Amino acid sequence: MKVISNSPGKYAYVIGPYAEPTETVEPGETFIVETLDAFENRITSPDDDITQIVTLPFVNPLTGPVYVNGAEQGDTLTVTIHSIEVTRDYGVSALIPEFGGLCSTVFTRTLQPPLPARVMLHPIADGRVTFSKDLPIAPIPYEPFYGTIGTAPELEAVSSLSPGFHGGNMDAADVCPGNVVHLPVNVPGALLHIGDGHAAQGDGEVSGVATEIPTRGVLTVDLIKGQAIGTPRVISDDHLMAVGSARPMEDAARIAFYELIMWLESSYSLDRLDAYQLCSQVAKVRLANMVDILYSVVAKFPKAYLPVR
Amino acid sequence: MKVISNSPGKYAYVIGPYAEPTETVEPGETFIVETLDAFENRITSPDDDITQIVTLPFVNPLTGPVYVNGAEQGDTLTVTIHSIEVTRDYGVSALIPEFGGLCSTVFTRTLQPPLPARVMLHPIADGRVTFSKDLPIAPIPYEPFYGTIGTAPELEAVSSLSPGFHGGNMDAADVCPGNVVHLPVNVPGALLHIGDGHAAQGDGEVSGVATEIPTRGVLTVDLIKGQAIGTPRVISDDHLMAVGSARPMEDAARIAFYELIMWLESSYSLDRLDAYQLCSQVAKVRLANMVDILYSVVAKFPKAYLPVR
Amino acid sequence: MKVISNSPGKYAYVIGPYAEPTETVEPGETFIVETLDAFENRITSPDDDITQIVTLPFVNPLTGPVYVNGAEQGDTLTVTIHSIEVTRDYGVSALIPEFGGLCSTVFTRTLQPPLPARVMLHPIADGRVTFSKDLPIAPIPYEPFYGTIGTAPELEAVSSLSPGFHGGNMDAADVCPGNVVHLPVNVPGALLHIGDGHAAQGDGEVSGVATEIPTRGVLTVDLIKGQAIGTPRVISDDHLMAVGSARPMEDAARIAFYELIMWLESSYSLDRLDAYQLCSQVAKVRLANMVDILYSVVAKFPKAYLPVR
Amino acid sequence: MKVISNSPGKYAYVIGPYAEPTETVEPGETFIVETLDAFENRITSPDDDITQIVTLPFVNPLTGPVYVNGAEQGDTLTVTIHSIEVTRDYGVSALIPEFGGLCSTVFTRTLQPPLPARVMLHPIADGRVTFSKDLPIAPIPYEPFYGTIGTAPELEAVSSLSPGFHGGNMDAADVCPGNVVHLPVNVPGALLHIGDGHAAQGDGEVSGVATEIPTRGVLTVDLIKGQAIGTPRVISDDHLMAVGSARPMEDAARIAFYELIMWLESSYSLDRLDAYQLCSQVAKVRLANMVDILYSVVAKFPKAYLPVR
To answer: Could you read off the pLDDT of D201-240 as tens digits, one per residue?
Structure first.
């Protein structure tokens, strides 16, 4: 299997059409992707000063762009995630001043002094994440996913910290092994970017940082020719999901539910108003992130309620 | 056991300190509460015209106020929900013009024509809700909860359609049998109001209406004297929860997480920044509603990660 | 002329239908209203501790309710403001912790420590407000208005700190001498409440407090029978205005423009899409407040562009 | 004087660091810039179908990038606007489905059918804009400005439809002849982009489109070396202004006021809390746009209240 990994110093900090592809794959191909953690693997001690290490815009390095042969504007790229392994024995989380869900930020400005910076290292072993050696907190299951996965917009180059219609930094825990992610193809080759591995994350990623890890994952890409989507979708064994990313957060939820309902109409013969009313009885929602440049909300339709044909 | 049920025509459409209590209970007392559905049990056919039946502000009738002896400002009222039975063989859902998550409303105004009104009746039997006799959708489990539960603010009388710091129309499916709801006491007697039974509801209640039912429930109220809370809390076997209600939706999430973190600090000896960073790894979030006068978000801390003492 | 002034200790802190009217007036009647400042005239020194004086919900005392004979649900109450005199030789402004546009609040929660409290007294004389004796800032013109003016909702009692469809704490500088305010009538007598005099205020009232003054004003009320409005309107010599109050702020702007456009259609024979497109060329907007329980935005149509008949 | 005008087919639809500069200028140089209208000058009749002409992302063509010799990251670029002439005898406005302030959009999704598309041509002559030949509306003064002006971000390429910290599509009428715009320099040469001339625009640009014109303007650029700004600033004879662009709209207002207050502190020796409290008495606000990818708000400090030294 091909192993895709950017050269040192060549990671992508934007998702766009301007960088040279680092690798080319075929539709249907299964390959390995290696990613750095969101801090470029540069945090090795709780004494590290994150404000020195995190220097915008060089945060959240992505592997790619990966060129998918035959992908054309108007197609949908599917990414099946088979596995995500952590390639280090610890994850990192942090408090970053002016970043997070319960502090002022460059968007939600206040005159108050910022919260302090700090770093925690979380040992990972045997499928468990240890939050802290000092606090008597039970181990957290290792449930890895990619915080960031996206395809290039046609003209824009979007910060790797931002989610959007192209995917990106959604921080949706549903982008995990076993699931299939659907992304829009806006440019030839789709230009897939992946990174931001998380060993564990709470809904909303409230402090702004999950248990950040470098990863080695196995993926298969494929194409749905001539079928466009409005925003990223995810399919699991149990759910159809659509991801909305916007501010304010209600707009993210609206985008997600709109896409989900259009999907139920176009692919499952449910009238859109029936689907709307049914979602109001059975849908699930994950708040993926409340901290990034746009907020992300995942609307989920349980397959158990799909119309029986 | 006492049975609490408002007289016909005497339901509460606001939660406030101005109405006479309909009943008085003692701390520790277990009693029965009967509630009408959100449309006052007036919808009996899918041909009913909801725009004639739903005439603001007389929507979402509540049972109460219930006066809890000994409750004083600064206390917390606890409500343990033992059971919620549906007292009719069907639930009602609807599309209401200018109300819902995917349409313009009196708050999010547009110049577009509104969506049509419509009503669906959902048969309920044997613990199952049938979405539609005409559509081949699998039955939905009967998982009842109170959409609306709250205590009177000190001076304000708040629409029964609005959630807030006083509880109210949170539409949080966690207000269900087996769980304990904590509400602030702002006035003597607390003045508990309950209603808006739901047999089933999707996260976000996206079309604006769940499977609305009249109910008969068994509750126990009690007081935590001299301990105030900032926003409603819910305790289940597995989770500590706090409910934030606000617009935009990110403010609801902020309120919920803030209360949860303050709770972890004050009751579980977790430093607030530790709690913040831990929530970012393990918290769960329920989007309760994206349709009401304020949006409601439930932040949940799994008890499994409470510090072991 | 009648002088309307609440008795000490009898001020209104909510706008609702539950308090007894303090006075009755006739349609067409001109009368005097006396109001306290938002802090109940209790701040007399820059050394006063505002956190002791401002004890929610007893902030922003209003004069009223004033019962207008003949006012019935579905009418519009018009209030012509002839003059607003300050009845003290200084105004007060302040920084109030957890209140304001550039700090965290009970709605926009953060974990950061709050900004400090502080009080400033602003001498007023000869039509000029002195910002500070210590800072070399030019005098500010005395341009008084009522921050709060509203009529009772049908069932709700709304904090005097909140604006809404009923008017209330809009903090719109257009509620000033020379202008006519239109308010909805939801209950018999309309129940007018007035207060929160400002000697000067910046757009948005960014720190949360204007130059707060007690006032003596001359008003005329009248009724437009059988004509309802959707949200408060203001008419000046030059502009038709509609006030939207909501969160997020874009919803306030949407409400204001929607009402303005409906008004242009119903009263000035402009097709609503023509009016929409015309507003996009000529409308003015005032950000009234970015700090209250809801934000208020005033959409203004210059009368110069009304269709010539 | 140099005349800067992109070749046909070579207009910029993103503001970023990836396109080759079309021209180079020196600090202090005065030159002419020619711009197309937002629809690429392709609308010539009210019968044109805007949905065929406006094909995203190829909307709002910009002239540039213009390379300013000597500009380095951390500098501020100043652009003095001397004049903006319209180079056609009419402007264009339109209703674009799923775009505007009072309709659902790709961000604020609803299930309602969209508003119709339509186009209006507005004759311009003798300093006056005629809204419509069919409606008896008084002529609108020709008050031109650039809707879009910005410098390249370091890594991102941002749609020409979006405003942001880099400037961009702010639709702020203060970017007009007589005023000086300050923009951040993030890359060598700054890479200035200009376009989207407006002959007239209402605050908020509520329908999404102003009176769009092609222009010929005279500008002078210069550099403030080694002084960075947080968001665009504008200086007029009377006001210091800062532009915030964000969603929700309150965040745009927060950014604008934060920058204004920091400016008053750093350049005018006003303590930031004094400036905050003073702005609450005297600031003005322009709602620049309520329709673009981010909303833009201009916070204005009247120079009359600057401390007298």
So the answer is: 999 999 999 999 999 999 999 999 999 999 999 999 999 9
Mutate which of B13, B107, B193 to test chain C, going by most C C-beta atoms within 10 A?
B107
Backbone angles phi, psi at C305, to 5 degrees: -105, 10
Size of interface A-C (CB pairs under 8 A): 32
- Taking the complete model, does pTM exceed 0.95, yes or no? yes
CB A101 within 8 A of CB A240: no
Q: Do B120 and A277 make contact, defined as CB atoms within 8 angstroms?
A: yes
Residues in chain D closer than 8 A to A154 (CB atoms): 57
Q: Which CATH architecture is the domain A23-227 placed in? A: Sandwich (2.60)
Q: What order of strands is seen across the sheet that includes strand B30-35? A: B3-4, B30-35, B215-224, B76-86, B180-184, B233-235, B239-246, B295-302, B284-289
Using the structure block, give the residue that is written with the tokens 């815009």.
A57
Strand partners, B234: B181, B241
Q: Check: CB of residue B178 under 8 Å from CB of residue B81.
A: yes
Interface confidence (ipTM) of the complex: 0.98
Which chains sit next to D, with 3 or more Cβ pairs under 8 A? Answer: A, B, C
Q: Are strands B180-184 and B76-86 parallel, antiparallel or unpaired?
A: antiparallel
Of D109, D111, D115, the CB nearest to B111: D115
AA identity, residue B261? I
CATH number of C3-304: 2.60.120.580
- Looking only at the bridges linking them, the beta strands covering C23-25 and C62-68 are parallel
Side-chain-side CA neighbours of residue A269 (13 Å): 6
Distance CA A283, CA B137 (A): 13
Measured N-to-C along each axis, helices A249-268 and B249-268 cross at an angle, to the nearest 10 degrees, of 110
Neighbours of B225 (CB within 10 A): 12
Q: Do B246 and C18 touch (CB under 8 A)?
A: no
**CA neighbor of A151 nearest in space, from A78, A204, A81:** A78
Of D129, D253, D305, the CB nearest to C137: D305
Interchain contact C157–B (C-beta under 8 A): yes
C250 neighbourhood in chain D, CB within 8 Å? 101, 247-249, 290, 295
Give the minimum alpha-carbon distance from C96 to chain A in angstroms, rounded to a whole number: 13
Task: Note whether D111 contacts A: Cβ–Cβ < 8 A.
Answer: yes
Q: Torsions phi, psi of B50, nearest 5? A: -60, -25
- Does B54 have pLDDT greater than 90? no
Task: Count Cα neighbours of A134 within 13 Å in the Cβ-side half-sphere.
Answer: 7
Contact state of B57 with C107 under an 8 Å Cβ cutoff: no
Q: Which residues contact B34 (CB under 8 A, 6 or more apart)?
A: B3, B4, B5, B63, B87, B214, B215, B216, B217
How far C126 CA lies from chain B's nearest CA (Å)? 39
The domain locations on chain C are 3-304
Nearest residue to A61 via CA among A166, A205, A169: A169
Of C16, C157, C248, the CB nearest to B248: C248
Determine the CATH number of domain B3-305.
2.60.120.580
Which residues in chain B (37-66) have CB-CB distances under 8 A to chain C?
57
Q: Given an 8 Å threshold on Cβ–Cβ distance, is B290 in contact with A211?
A: no
Q: Rounded to a whole number, what is the distance in Å from the CA of D113 to chain A's nearest CA?
A: 12
Q: Say yes or no to pLDDT of A8 above 80.
A: yes
The answer to whether the CB atoms of B159 and C155 lie below 8 A apart is yes
Could you say which DSSP state residue C204 is in?
A: B
Mean pLDDT on B146-160: 98
pLDDT of residue C116: 96
Q: What is the pLDDT of residues C257-305, one digit of tens each?
A: 999 999 999 999 999 999 999 999 999 999 999 999 999 999 999 999 9
Question: Is residue C173 helix, strand or coil?
Answer: coil
Name every chain B residue with its beta carbon within 8 A of the beta carbon of A102.
Answer: 254, 257-258, 261, 276
Distance of alpha carbon D93 from alpha carbon D210, whole angstroms: 6
Cα–Cα dist D81/D181, whole Å: 8
